[in-house]
């Protein structure tokens, strides 16, 4: 399409929230500019860490696999059917994103322009429209949907480099995170732990609450590893951990260890005996909110007590920020009046709320013009 006219919406971020917003917008027949983000920003996004989605109805290999197996068996292709039956078809964020981009290019190419790079700057003009700028070009748009995401704080443990130097790094945990042995979200993967021992990593009241939730849901062996922090000291928590058999270890973690690559089996400490767990739930809070563009136009941020780069952007029930016409969907946005969840379904729901609001205003403006002429 590539046009110099004003887009109905510019969508910044090609993860779950951005793709959901772009799809809704083209399906509303709106003109859209989508900045998917660069390879570097993708690597720093939560999207890339999702190994297998199974907390949403419909997102399950069985939905298609069973149909394929039926077709293959009916056609007498038993060898192919056996091959398919033996495979596990993970569905992850990268698959969803690739599929959505493909569908939009194929079916709505006349409505959408896709820039495979980061948006560098955002400006709001006096008439309320926006200028969004990529590496080389600027575009104007009536509204903006920001879906640039966040990154979780990671545990750091000692790591030895090739020269024998030891430094603290989060790199040793990546293989476990990539294989869902270290998990980041109780609603996404908490159910995987139901038959196994699990360690919640963090010293905050939220981490403590997660230990109680896990035990109350699954009755499994739960540890709280505060990784050097003081554990929450309320009387109620002490009584509950005693009743539930939750063990609290405050000593810093020195090693995550697995039988095979990424398959967690044990956590070690400098002095404390090692513990055997199959899962670690990382609950260290937010490391970074990619809110730079929102800050450029003065959008209000949540949680004054934390540094600006860790603050989510305040949104209302439509996903709109304090800057009219700037919407934030996915993990980067947060409502003041209730907890905004950080899952795929929430990103998708707010994407629809935001884009349908933009569409509503667009249609209202058109009606007003038409009625003024009569
Ligand atoms: C390990 C892990 C497992 C998870 N598993 C599940 C699960 O099973 N089920 C579930 O419901 N949820 C899961 N989640 C949560 C889910 O992945 C997130 O809620 C979701 O990805 C958030 O979508 P988002 O659009 O806000 O951000 P992301 O999906 O992280 O996307 C952000 C995008 O913005 C782009 N970007 C950043 N800056 C710019 C810029 N300046 N210009 C243009 N683009 C930019 C990046 O390249 C990236 O593509 C999991 C999260 C983690 C960490």
What does this protein look like?
It is built from 11 helices and 21 strands. It is 33% helix and 23% strand. The protein has 2 domains: 194 residues, FAD/NAD(P)-binding domain (3-Layer(bba) Sandwich), CATH 3.50.50.60; 115 residues, FAD/NAD(P)-binding domain (3-Layer(bba) Sandwich). Helix 1 runs parallel beside helix 5 and helix 3 runs antiparallel to helix 4. It is an alpha/beta fold. The strands form 6 sheets. Strands 1, 2, 3, 4, 5, 6 and 20 form a 7-stranded mixed sheet that branches. A 5-stranded parallel sheet has the order 10-17-11-12-13. The protein has a 3-stranded antiparallel sheet with strand order 14-15-16, with no helix packed on it. The radius of gyration is 23 Å and the shape is globular.
List the helices and strands and how they pair.
Blueprint: E1 7-12, H1 16-27, E2 32-35, H2 39-43, H3 61-74, H4 78-86, H5 93-108, E3 112-115, E4 121-124, E5 130-133, E6 138-146, E7 150-152, E8 157-160, E9 166-169, H6 174-178, E10 182-183, H7 186-189, E11 198-201, H8 205-218, E12 222-225, H9 235-244, E13 247-249, E14 253-258, E15 264-269, E16 275-276, E17 279-282, E18 286-289, H10 292-296, E19 313-315, E20 326-328, E21 333-335, H11 344-373
Parallel strand pairs: 1-2, 1-6, 2-3, 6-20, 10-17, 11-12, 11-17, 12-13, 19-21
Antiparallel strand pairs: 4-5, 5-6, 7-18, 8-9, 14-15, 15-16
């Amino acid at each position: 399409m590539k046009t110099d006219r004003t887009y109905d919406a510019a969508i910044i971020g090609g993860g779950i929230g951005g793709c959901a917003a772009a799809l809704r917008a083209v399906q509303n027949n709106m003109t859209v500019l989508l900045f998917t983000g660069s390879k570097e920003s993708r690597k720093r996004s939560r999207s890339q860490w999702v190994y297998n989605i199974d907390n949403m109805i419909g997102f399950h290999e069985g939905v298609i696999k069973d149909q394929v197996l039926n077709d293959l068996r009916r056609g007498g292709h038993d060898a192919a059917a056996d091959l398919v039956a033996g495979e596990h078809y993970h569905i992850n964020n990268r698959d969803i994103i690739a599929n959505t981009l493909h569908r939009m290019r194929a079916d709505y190419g006349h409505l959408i322009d896709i820039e495979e790079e980061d948006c560098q700057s955002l400006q709001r003009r006096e008439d309320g429209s926006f200028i969004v700028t990529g590496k080389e070009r600027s575009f104007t748009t009536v509204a903006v949907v920001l879906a640039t995401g966040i990154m979780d704080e990671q545990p750091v443990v000692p790591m030895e480099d090739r020269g024998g130097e030891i430094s603290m790094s989060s790199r040793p945990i990546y293989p476990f995170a990539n294989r869902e042995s270290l998990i980041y979200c109780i609603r996404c993967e908490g159910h995987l732990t139901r038959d196994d021992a699990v360690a919640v990593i963090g010293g905050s009241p939220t981490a403590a609450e997660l230990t109680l939730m896990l035990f109350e849901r699954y009755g499994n062996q739960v540890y709280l590893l505060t990784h050097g922090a003081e554990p929450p000291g309320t009387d109620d928590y002490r009584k509950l951990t005693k009743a539930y058999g939750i063990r609290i270890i405050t000593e810093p973690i020195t090693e995550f260890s697995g039988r095979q690559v990424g398959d967690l089996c044990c956590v070690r400490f400098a002095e404390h005996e090692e513990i055997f767990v199959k899962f670690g739930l990382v609950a260290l809070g937010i490391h970074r909110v990619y809110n730079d563009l929102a800050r450029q136009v003065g959008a209000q941020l949540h949680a004054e007590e934390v540094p600006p780069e860790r603050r989510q952007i305040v949104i209302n029930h439509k996903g709109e920020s304090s800057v009219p016409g700037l919407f934030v969907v996915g993990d980067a946005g947060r409502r003041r009046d209730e907890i905004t969840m950080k899952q795929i379904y929430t990103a998708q729901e707010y994407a629809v709320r935001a884009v349908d609001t933009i569409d509503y205003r667009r249609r209202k403006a058109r009606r007003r013009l038409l009625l003024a002429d009569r």
